[in-house]
Design brief:
- The chain is α+β, with helices and mostly antiparallel strands and 185 residues long.
- It has one domain.
- It contains eight helices and four strands.
- Strands 2-1-4-3 form a four-stranded antiparallel β-sheet.
- A hairpin with a 6-residue loop joins strand 3 and strand 4.
């Protein structure tokens, strides 16, 4: 069997590896030389909802797509494409809060973490589309292997460890509350 014939079987592993790797890099580059780590964006993304930033929901969409990739192939592809759409809509974000002074600063670009995250979702979508086209039944779709399970476990450990890191601490209340002004007499 050639590598080209076996490669579609490893799309899930490659997607998970890219996703995990993305968390080691910056996700967004901001003005004044600031940056936001992708791991911090992963942890605190839901706090963007009050500001109309729904891109973080690409993560749970991708997770559900991965979980049902074998039994519900077409649904998994649809969920993956939805995740890809949400992730790509990040190009429309202009301002982000930082975790130092909680002020919104202009986004000047994306870091390697964002592009790896986008690539992880795209690899899943391409692999799943291939499986939808080529597989005759769910038994033909590759299932979980030990490396997939290890990557998911590493992702869980990484997320837990990140919640314990002081450098990634973020107090959403400071972003959501208006700044206090001095008393006026």
């Amino acid at each position: 069997m050639t590598l080209g014939a076996r490669l579609p079987a490893f799309y899930l592993t490659l997607s998970l590896a890219l996703y995990l790797l993305s968390l080691a890099f910056d996700g967004a580059l901001m003005s004044a030389g600031r940056h936001m780590p992708a791991l911090q964006m992963f942890l605190y993304g839901p706090w963007g909802i009050p500001f109309g930033m729904f891109q973080w929901f690409a993560n749970p969409l991708l997770a559900v797509a991965i979980l049902c990739h074998r039994r519900f192939r077409r649904l998994a592809l649809l969920l993956g494409l939805g995740a890809l759409y949400l992730a790509a809509s990040s190009f429309g974000i202009e301002r982000l809060p930082d975790n130092i002074n909680y002020e919104f600063t202009n986004r000047t670009g994306f870091g390697a973490g964002y592009y790896l995250w986008l690539a992880a979702i795209a690899v899943f979508c391409v692999g799943q589309a291939w499986q939808c086209w080529a597989a005759r039944s769910s038994a033909d779709v590759p299932g979980w292997n030990w490396l997939d399970v290890a990557l998911i476990a590493a992702l869980a450990v990484t997320a837990y460890a990140a919640t314990q890191m002081p450098a990634l601490q973020f107090e959403p209340g400071k972003v959501l509350m208006p700044p206090e002004h001095g008393q006026m007499l």
